[in-house]
Every structure is written in C-alpha cells, then in structure tokens.
User: Fold this.
Amino acid sequence: MKRIIIPALIAVLGLSAPAVERPAEGVPASTNVPEAAYPCVDSLNRATFKLFAPEAADVKLDICGTKYPMAKDENGIWTVTTNPLVEGFHYYFMLVDGVAVNDPASQTFYGCGRLSSGIEIPEDEVTAAYYTYNKDIPHGQVRECRYYSSTHDTVRRCFVYTPAEYETNTSATYPVLYLQHGMGEDETGWHTQGKMAEILDNHIAAGTAVPMIVVMDYGDCGYIHGARKGETRDQFGATFTPVLLNDIIPYIESTFRVKTDRDNRAMAGLSWGGHQTLETTMRHLDKFSHIGSFSGALFFLGEGGLEKAYDGIFTDADAFNAQVKTLFFGMGTEEHFGSDRISEALTAAGINHVYYASPGTHHEWLTWRRCLDQFVPLIFKN
Assistant:
C-alpha cells in the first residue's frame, strides 16, 4: 500500500518530507507531543500555532486571557502567531466554531477543571536552572500509588516523590511534605506543570534542602467551584482534611520509611491548596510544624481579622512561634491574593514567618515553582 501523508498529519506533526524541520517561526515547544513542530516559540516569546480543520468556519486560539483569530489557508490549516507571552507554563484551547477543544499537537495537562493543552514559554537557562533536569546529579523517583480511602469508601491515587538516596540508604527515614494543587487541578499538577521533582533533586544535590518525601494527592477540588449545585465556598474541598488525616498520612507512614512526628511533617499548597493547607494545619498543629501557602486563597483577614482567625491562634505569638517552625507565604507581584497584607498583619502580631514575592509573575505555575524553590530549603532544619 502506498504511504500517503495527508495535510492533517502535516499540520498536527509539523512534517515536511522527508523529516521534521525546525519551523521558521521559532523552536518547537517542549510541551508538544513527539515530533510536533507546532506550536513553536520565537526569540520574542511569540508562539505560532497551527490546526488542521478544513470544515471549520471560525477558529480562535484562547491563551493567557486573549482570543486570537486564526487564519485559514487553501489546505484547511489555520495559523496564528500571538503577541509576546509571559514566560512560564500556560493552559490554552482552540475554539473551533465556538467549541473549546485541545490542540492535538500539545500534551494534555489537567487544569481548568479538565484536560487542557499547555505550552511552556522558556526562561533563559540560568534562570530556569532550579527546575531543569540536571544530568550530572542523582535523581529521585515519582511513584503513582493507590490506596483505599475509608473517608470516601473508594480507591484513590496519589503521587509520591522519594529522594535519590531512598533506594540505597535503606536504614534512613525521611520527613514528609504533603503538597497540594489548586482549584481545577489534580494530583498530577505539581509533578508535571510544577516541576516538583527537578526542584527537589537540585536542592538536595546542592545540600540546600534535606532529603524528604513529597506526597501529592487529589485535593477534592479538581473542578471549578460552582460546578456542584448548592455547594458553598466553605464546603468546596473541605472533605480533603479528613482524607489527609485519616487515610493519606496512615497510608504513607505504613508504606514508606518516614518520620512520624510533627516536627518532620509539613504541608503546603497553591491557591485553593494554600487555603486547604491553613484550614488543615492551623486546626491540627499537633500534627504539622512546617506550613506553606503559595498564592493561597485566604479569607481570614476579611472575616473578623487576625485576632479571630482559626479560633484566635495568632493572638499568642509566643505560643504559636514555639509550635510552628516554618510559616511561609508567597505570591506573584502581579497578582492580588492578599498574602502581602497577611504578612504585614502577622508581622504586627509578632508571628514569625517568611514572605516571598515572585517578581513579575501572576497567578500561575511559574509563581508556584518559585515559591516551592524558596520553601523547601526552610523546612525540616530547625
């Protein structure tokens, strides 16, 4: 049978006989499926996208809050080049006659409450080194694990990072960081979009963080609030705390070689995961001593002020500071989630904490990569 390469395959994979070529518009994105030349990114961080949709009447690219009209050629291939995009990872969709679909040339990532296309706009090599795979250092493993949740009477999935030495230093036990995603994302986010393993590997190899285990679970908030009729803000994701305390922690402590005291247990999360982190840890300080909120969806300043938050936990600074060894807040300078105001209030109340502002970033994965990079060197050291 004669082999025919049709325009659809050319559009999806970026093929030109006899092999894949580098597009004139830039370099293929690292988030593309294998052999796909588009989307590609040029030196000005503009991205060019192509989609084969010969029967479509209207196609737009929806990325970073902008909908770009795409132009159709005689072969039915739609093309657009964006304005310069902000560095970092971005979800995007193709709007084909008004319907949001994924780009077949992109890998899919769970975000926005569904599987989404995604593109990485690269930073320079030096800036990105902390979340880049380094071939010259040892690397840990990320394992997919399944366990039974008595809380929900179902089987659940989590991902567990073990440091490189876990397999060889078999007499050692390790502290644990429970690391949570945000609204509309799931337990894959920190490993794929967040580059968690690269950040941990690089820090541990450099001696700037202690070897630790990281657990990433579904936070019961992988949809957009409002999708469940009648669900209140306080109910959204609230079932995760009992899952963590009654199911996940016992599973981890019975399955992996971990330390089980509060001084060797941390929790952190981004956005709604930051909210879940404080809701869990502040009410269970007997179980956690290291706490991190990255662009946390935090409401307590507007609900009675710092004095009433979490049953008055911040009113006795000496007692709080004696219990909590690490309290970290971070967010991007271009977002407005209020972590800076919370930091100011905590400072005035005498609460020891660290505040980090990620320069030039919004409510996005680059902010949270940077927050994790700042957070992990602080924990399990005091």
